[in-house]
Amino acid sequence: MSSSLEKNMLILRSSDGEEFIVPEVVAVMSKAIKNMVEDECASNTIPVPNVDANILAMVIEFCKKHDESEAEAASDLKTFDSEFVNRGQEALYDLITAANFRDVKELLDALCQNVAEMIKGKSVHHIRIQFLGYQLFEILTSNFIWNIWCDRDFD
Amino acid sequence: MDTADSLTTVDHGGGGGTTISAVHPDILQTHILTRLDGPTLASAASTSSQLRALSSQDHLWRYICNDKWPSTAHPRVRRLISSFPSAHRSFISDSFPSLDHRHPLRRSPPNRRHTSPPPSQLFSAVDLHYQTKPVLSKALATETITGLMLGADFRIDLLDPKETVPMPVNLDFRDDTCESDLEENLTLSWIVIDPVRNRAANFSSFRPVSVDRNWLTGDIELRYVTVLPGDRRGEVLQCCAIVTCGGREGGGLHVREVSLQVEDMEGKNLGWEESLVILLEAVEGGKRRIGKRGGEKEGYEMCLKMKKERSERKKRRQKRLEVASIATAVTIFVAFWVFVVIRILQFLHLV
């Protein structure tokens, strides 16, 4: 496909300068990289701005697993996915941003599904504390004020 | 909520960067919010102004609506819903919660009710589910004018007399467990839409409140009752959605009848005129229950209790009347004899 002499290996450089050598088949799981390779505008080093080494390593791990296990059982992949997305929120959001930016559909789907599962069934206060960084005292005070407001007689 | 929103602008030192706003709004909207269910989307929308703005897109609510009630995907119903104040969101907030039976136990007095003419058509969106499997989804427009003219009993029939719908599960009709199984798993939603005022309400109790077997035909009759306030204090009306299931020759079940009617406490069907007024009042002003489901049966039981109390009161009154009349009779009888005896004594004395 590519005229690259690297025996189908590509080098990805993260935003903080670290380089990762990955097989082309793995790299092209990202649509953005695939387009670059197909257009042959990629030299053997592809810069991946906005994504730092940590996150890039995770994305590559995910892509590798998905590429390898194409022949494997789907249930195996599912358990891997569920373990993979089971991370702290910060990493999760960074991964989502990276997956969206690099256009890795499977990863984005798995991550968003996970976030949606996390939100599902939670109350307003719970969501505020967990996802919007509210502190408990804020919830309590706002709740207090809101209750006083609601207890007024409107008629 | 405004008080809370102003607080979001404060930078939270401890958890900086871990808020969901780190995710690009487009991703939030197209990938995360679309995966939420109705109640969660509603609570997510009330957490912050950003999420509220993102979740105000109608298509998010339309997915939820069509997923929960497939009958709302009918083009006619969809057109009706699109004229609601905020389209599908208003529709869901109107029809998702059940009507609260505890709230006013009395209707507003007749002189304070506004008396606009009833709409010429009443729309119903009905969905019957066995667990999560759809059994029947149908949107129906009912002409009100013929019923009003004829003065007939109010009854909306969903199925044609000869039409039946097979149940997606294999249940033995003659089995006794069949009834409890249906009671557990068969859920109904009957949404009545007022096309004039653009409001809707769900008149089904979601799960059946009573299951009876017809002694003659052996059909199973499931009643989904919503309790509505009556005219006088302590009087209630029932809006009954009735599902009748019958057996099939080859085994298995099918749904024979699905209907809606309004009954008073004695179980008498109210006429079209009164029923329409009551239904539309409930659609417009009925309090929706806040919180989780599960109080519907309690409402029905309260209704039954009231009915029992009422009949007991009646019986007591009758008994009292009986005692009084007996007492009167005895008094008259005694008085008569006393009178007679006195006359005889007087007579004897005189002699």
Explain the overall architecture.
The complex is a heterodimer of chains A (155) and B (351). Chain A is mostly helical. Chain A has 2 domains: 9-120, Potassium Channel Kv1.1, Chain A, CATH 3.30.710.10; 121-155. Chain A has helices at residues 24-27, 31-38, 53-68, 74-84, 89-102, 105-119, 124-131, 136-151; strands at residues 9-13, 19-23, 45-47. A 3-stranded mixed β-sheet of chain A has the order 2-1-3. In chain A, strand 1 (9-13) and strand 2 (19-23) form a beta hairpin. The radius of gyration of chain A is 21 Å and the shape is elongated. The N and C termini of chain A lie far apart (75 Å). Chain B has 351 residues and is α+β, with helices and mostly antiparallel strands. Chain B has 2 domains: 1-6 and 20-56, no CATH class; 93-308, no CATH class. Chain B is 40% helix and 21% strand. Chain B has 11 helices and 10 strands. In chain B, strands 3, 4, 7, 8, 9 and 10 form a 6-stranded antiparallel β-sheet that branches. Chain B has a 4-stranded antiparallel β-sheet with strand order 2-1-5-6, with helices on both faces. The A-B interface holds A 88-90, 93-94, 96-97, 100, 108-109, 112-113, 115-116, 119-124, 127-128, 131-135, 138-139, 142, 145-146, 149 and B 1, 3-4, 7-8, 10, 12, 14-24, 27, 31-32, 35-37, 39-40, 43-44, 46-48. Chain A: This is SKP1-like protein 4. Chain B: This is F-box protein.
